[in-house]
Amino acid sequence: MSRARKTHTLPPADPTLLLTALHIGASSVSIIIAERDAEGNPTPVDFLEQPAPLAQDVFGGNIVSNATTERIVSIIHGYQETLSEMGLDPHNLTRAVATNVLHEATNHESVLNRIRIACGLPVSMIDDGEMTRLIYLKTRRRLQHLPAMTRRTALVVHVGPGNTRALLFHEGLITRYTSYRMGTHRTREAVEASHAEGPALLRVIREHASGNLAQLRFDFSDVSIDGIILIGYEIQSVSSFLTKNNEACTLKDFRKFTTETAILSDLGTVKRFQLDYQTAEALIPALEINLAIAEALGMKEVHIPNSEYEQGLLHDLLVSREMSGSFATEVLRSARILAERYQSDPGHGEHVGKLCAHFLTNLQDLHHLPEHDALLLQVAAILHEVGTYVSPRAHHKHSEYIILNSEIFGLDRLDVTIVALVSRYHRHSGPKLDHPSYAALSVEDRIRVCKLAAILRVADALERTHAQRISKIEIIRTADKLRIRLPGLKDAAIERLAMDSKADLFEQVFGLSVVIEEDN
After folding, report:
1. Domain pair 147-304 / 323-518, same fold
2. Ramachandran angles phi, psi of 25, nearest 5°
3. Where residue 9 falls among pLDDT bands split at 50, 70, 90?
4. What is the pLDDT of residues 46-72, one digit of tens each?
5. Which among 438, 428, 510, 432 is positioned nearest to 477, based on CA atoms?
6. Measured between alpha carbons, how far is 474 from 487 in angstroms, rounded to an integer?
């Protein structure tokens, strides 16, 4: 079933004001064309969507078939014709992305190359960090009006095609973020071999998800959740059948709806809910997983937004890069919560972070690190000593392990790996190729780790006493030295001793030896 809807009937006066976002999703390929209003916010003009069984291929055999790839290419060609008719460059979209599900396909690079060659369009994969950012943005922009979000503690659950993410809000602020390898299409393909139908299929789905459900129940066993909001492509596609005017749906009604839907054939599901076949096949796992989560948490009702999931996702893709300030604040909050959990010295971590920020600002022409890496360095500063929770001895290695095995809101696995390595290298040995996590990185990412760790080591040396003695820093660069003056500090013997053992990496990376000068 092909779906194409106009959401704004007036043609834009100036094509240069138009924005375009393409999303190769788990079960469809969609595009939105939007026009910037006077405030710079995108207003939808057109929204088009057509089905493509990407997730079915990925979770069915870990490879995207040639037929599916060519289906995607054909859909994009059609969209490009529409863009040309509107006077837009069909090869220069504002955003062109593919679901992170594609990463699990062994031939994902070939698929993206085929699209680039056939359509003249570079497409990037959404990573876990941006997916979390999009869920957060959706929550901020579209869910705040829901009654559940006004309560003291609210949980937003996103059951996606491959994974489930849970964001816990306490008085409007994120206090916990978890993810689980449990999704609609992943589950659908996993239980396909059972040939179960109706109630039996629901039991098989529940059994398959039991391990993740037990982990989720444990993760939130220490909090009292006042309201739960369920979002996702499939669950929101039938939200109008479950709730009206964004009112709550009781678990009794939810359970009844799920049972009744489970006995429908795929064709019956398509006709009743006006879905494409790929979405219809994933609907039962979506319903049962969401129901199981609500039951596991002891909820009596759920909230399901009536808004269009895919159209909202595309809209948010156009603005997600413009929300770095508030999003960075939430990332740092998540890092501080993790640091508190492992009883890391908060004053020390925050002060090291301030010192790092000072070096980043004043040495920009030396390190050339982007804003995102500056955020990762701040996270590493907050977390670099969490390993002392295990033992002060070799705590840098314990810090690496803890961070690698933790969730930090808004950071994907590469980000977390970089933070873990930078934290590890805040003391003792610098990066080495016989360190597995470091060796597994690309050359570019290894350079990022070296730059960030070099700056962290210098900042940490200046905070050797854990007493926040350094309040002012003056930096003077010469051809071969970075001279650091510390106004107001009469005796910097401790800091100089620490710098002697920590500034080696800075000199190796940036070619400057570090010299501390007291205030005379």
Report:
1. no
2. -95, -175
3. very low
4. 999 999 999 999 999 999 999 999 999
5. 510
6. 8
